[in-house]
UniProtKB/TrEMBL annotation:
<feature type="domain" description="Aminotransferase class V">
    <location>
        <begin position="4"/>
        <end position="365"/>
    </location>
</feature>
<dbReference type="Pfam" id="PF00266">
    <property type="entry name" value="Aminotran_5"/>
</dbReference>
<dbReference type="InterPro" id="IPR020578">
    <property type="entry name" value="Aminotrans_V_PyrdxlP_BS"/>
</dbReference>
<dbReference type="InterPro" id="IPR015422">
    <property type="entry name" value="PyrdxlP-dep_Trfase_small"/>
</dbReference>
<keyword id="KW-0479">Metal-binding</keyword>
<comment type="similarity">
    <text>Belongs to the class-V pyridoxal-phosphate-dependent aminotransferase family. NifS/IscS subfamily.</text>
</comment>
<protein>
    <recommendedName>
        <fullName>cysteine desulfurase</fullName>
        <ecNumber>2.8.1.7</ecNumber>
    </recommendedName>
</protein>
<keyword id="KW-0663">Pyridoxal phosphate</keyword>
<dbReference type="InterPro" id="IPR015421">
    <property type="entry name" value="PyrdxlP-dep_Trfase_major"/>
</dbReference>
<dbReference type="InterPro" id="IPR015424">
    <property type="entry name" value="PyrdxlP-dep_Trfase"/>
</dbReference>
<keyword id="KW-0808">Transferase</keyword>
<dbReference type="InterPro" id="IPR016454">
    <property type="entry name" value="Cysteine_dSase"/>
</dbReference>
<dbReference type="InterPro" id="IPR000192">
    <property type="entry name" value="Aminotrans_V_dom"/>
</dbReference>
<keyword id="KW-0411">Iron-sulfur</keyword>
<keyword id="KW-0408">Iron</keyword>
């Protein structure tokens, strides 16, 4: 039985062309980009080219791109670094209850250190309401941090409306766009956002590399102390092979964005239609037309997520859940709890399926058939 990977929101297979781009860097571009000799200059040139590609992909300037070790570091630098640099203007931050833990835990760190955090609620569609944000804004609010696409449900937040609301306010606007980048076209000359966090391994690039867009003029306190790399905003010798691989992944994504959106949307429909054809009892968490093409989060009534994921894995299906499974117990998903409330069965019986380059129509349909058999057997 051939395994089927439906967990692209967790990480994606590295594209063959990305690997091919990285190998010669390991072999021939081994200088330190900060060195002035020819080996260092060669590495610096590769780094500069990749930065230009990253900047171009979102309509930014080269100097506004800071390479990081991934989305988590980018979120931490954006949230903690910006708030610390602007605490003279206020100590209030607004975020949501459904952020990725990279952002939530950064906000909680600030809260433990004397800052005040407002956690906006979401509703059953997984989205915030602009009125709630407007009501929470204060004169001393220095940062608003709201992700573009939720990693568990795929729900898309009204980022443009948020940005427009904040345009006349002192607060800086940060968005984790890890699940959106590569599928949703983003141009910072049109979207007035100040900070964007991106991760390579979600777009078929290598792990351990990402970038943070920092709009020119946004005060930032570095969290890593050492050398003066990345315009003094992120100390440490740059991961040149990873950055070159990331560059290639960006280039590949830009050439096939519209095709991927259409293809992954079709995969989602095939998957759901097959479950329906098999008479599986299920509910989609959130509103399907307000979610990104790659992700669908499904509640299976009277099921237990731990048993589901174990049986899926035994059947060769890779999927995941926001619930934290430990020995004999399940900690409910914080995202679904925010959407439906504590104690709701959907917080412990839901599974996220996410599509990508490891899929095709046949294995998506087969996955749905295997899942249907498991559901019927467990019932």
């Amino acid at each position: 039985m051939k395994p089927i990977y439906l967990d692209h929101a967790a990480t994606t297979p590295v594209h063959d062309e990305v690997i091919e781009a990285m190998v010669p860097v390991y072999q021939t571009i081994y200088g330190n980009p900060s060195s002035v000799h020819q080996f260092g200059r060669k590495a610096r040139n590769a780094l500069d080219q990749a930065r230009r590609t990253a900047a171009r992909s979102i309509g930014a300037k080269e100097k506004e791109i800071v390479f990081t070790s991934g989305g988590t570091e980018a979120d931490n630098l954006a949230i903690i670094g910006t708030v610390l640099a602007n605490q003279g203007k206020g100590k209030h931050v607004i975020t949501t209850e459904v952020e990725h833990h990279a952002s939530l835990h950064a906000a909680q760190y600030l809260e433990q250190n004397g800052f005040e955090i407002t956690y906006l609620p979401v509703y059953e569609d997984g989205r915030i309401r602009i009125d709630d944000l407007e009501a929470s804004l204060r004169e001393d609010t220095v940062l608003v941090s709201i992700m573009m696409v939720n990693n568990e449900t795929g729900a898309m937040q009204p980022i443009m409306e948020i940005a427009e609301l904040l345009a006349s306010h002192q607060a800086y606007f940060h968005s984790d766009i890890v699940q959106a980048y590569g599928l949703i076209e983003i141009n910072v000359t049109e979207l007035p956002v100040d900070l964007l966090a991106v991760s390579s391994h979600k777009i078929n690039g290598p792990k351990g590399i990402g970038f943070l867009y920092i709009r020119e003029g946004t005060p930032m306190q570095s969290l890593a102390h050492g050398g003066e790399q990345e315009r003094k905003r992120r100390a440490g010798t740059e991961n040149v092979p990873g950055i070159v691989g990331f560059q290639k992944a960006i280039e590949l994504t830009e050439t096939v964005r519209s095709d991927r959106k259409e293809r992954y949307s079709r995969y989602k429909q095939i998957f759901l239609e097959e479950l329906s054809n098999e008479a599986v009892d299920y509910q989609i968490n959130g509103i399907e037309n307000q979610t990104i093409e790659t992700i669908v989060n499904i509640s299976f009534p009277n099921m237990n997520v731990e048993a589901l994921l174990t049986n899926f894995d035994l059947s060769g299906i890779a999927a995941s859940s926001g619930s934290a499974c430990t020995a004999g117990s399940v900690e409910p998903s914080h995202v679904l709890t925010a959407m439906y409330g504590k104690g709701d069965a959907r917080t412990v019986n839901s599974v996220r399926f996410s599509f990508g380059i490891a899929n095709h129509e046949e294995n998506v349909k087969e996955a749905a058939q295997r899942i249907s058999q498991i559901i019927k057997r467990l019932k």
